[in-house]
Automatic annotation (TrEMBL):
Residues 9-104 form the DUF6160 domain. This is DUF6160 domain-containing protein. InterPro entries: DUF6160. Pfam families: DUF6160.
């Protein structure tokens, strides 16, 4: 047999082996792949993180601008009457966060955020300076908010982008221990506001100011985001919380007193589009 005949036979043989191998190939799910590759997703640990933005401006015919945005750590270790961060480890940066990313067997993407390094919580702070309405020449007009500061702790969050429905679902558990806002155009100021879990008021009522445990301090929220006919749909499936507003000021006068909201649950369906 000539050289080319041998090569042809070899090619046919290799093709036959290849077809035989392809007949045995099966898709592996993530758990099986983890046994083969030793890896079942991606984990990202986040430390020393901070975000600063000089201005965010939304423009229509006029504009609204938010200035001096800062996101980082709360730089304290006591929240809701208890110490949650060890002494010396508090900072103004976001620390000790772990993000686990996985693609499930059905193709859905899931992300789980949780505290890392043996911590139960992640402390955070969100603050802004002025909020302004502006005319078409971008001249500052009514000052809506003079300042906003939110300090609290996050207990966990998770996101699922479903491969079958194309819906994104976000669930989060968090507590706000100190919210201060100065609504200048109404001459209203709120200080030391708290947003906690729906058992928070019962816990501190029964066991005192430091009687709230990790199961009491976390408000729970679930948001579903998806494409709708007119635009973007955002469904607030649940927002369960207790709210404490101990100090409310009108002008430069003393506080008018406090407001306490027990077992609040907010649900809503919204669609956002241009007009």
């Amino acid at each position: 047999m000539g050289r080319f005949g041998k090569l042809n036979l070899l090619g046919v043989g290799l093709a036959s082996v290849s077809l035989g191998l392809q007949a045995e190939i099966q898709a592996l799910d993530e758990a099986t792949m983890s046994n083969v590759t030793g890896q079942a997703g991606i984990s990202i640990e986040i430390n020393n993180a901070a975000i600063g933005v000089g201005e965010i401006r939304y423009e229509d015919e006029g504009s609204i601008a938010i200035r001096g945005i800062e996101i980082g750590g709360a730089n304290r270790n006591t929240f809701f009457g208890n110490q949650w961060i060890p002494n010396g480890l508090q900072s103004d940066k976001l620390d000790n966060m772990k993000l686990d990313l996985d693609v499930l067997a059905d193709g859905s993407l899931v992300a789980n955020m949780k505290p890392a390094g043996g911590f139960n919580v992640v402390d955070f702070r969100l603050a802004t300076d002025d909020w302004y309405l502006m005319d078409s020449s971008l001249t500052d007009g009514t000052k809506l908010i003079d300042s906003l500061s939110i300090e609290g702790i996050a207990l966990g969050a998770r996101l699922r982008i479903d491969n079958q429905t194309s819906h994104a679902t976000l669930q989060a558990t968090f507590g706000v221990d100190d919210l201060d806002v100065d609504i200048e155009f109404l001459n209203v100021r709120v200080e030391n506001m708290q947003i906690a879990g729906s058992s928070y008021l019962e816990a501190i009522g029964s066991f005192g100011p430091s009687g709230a445990g990790v199961g009491d301090i976390g408000a729970e929220i679930e948001i579903e985001i998806y494409s709708s006919g007119p635009g973007l749909a955002i469904d607030l499936n649940r927002f369960e919380m207790d709210v404490v507003m101990p100090e409310i000021y009108l002008g430069a006068n003393p506080s008018i007193g406090g407001v306490y909201l027990d077992d609040v649950n907010v649900v809503a369906q919204t669609v956002i589009y241009g007009h």
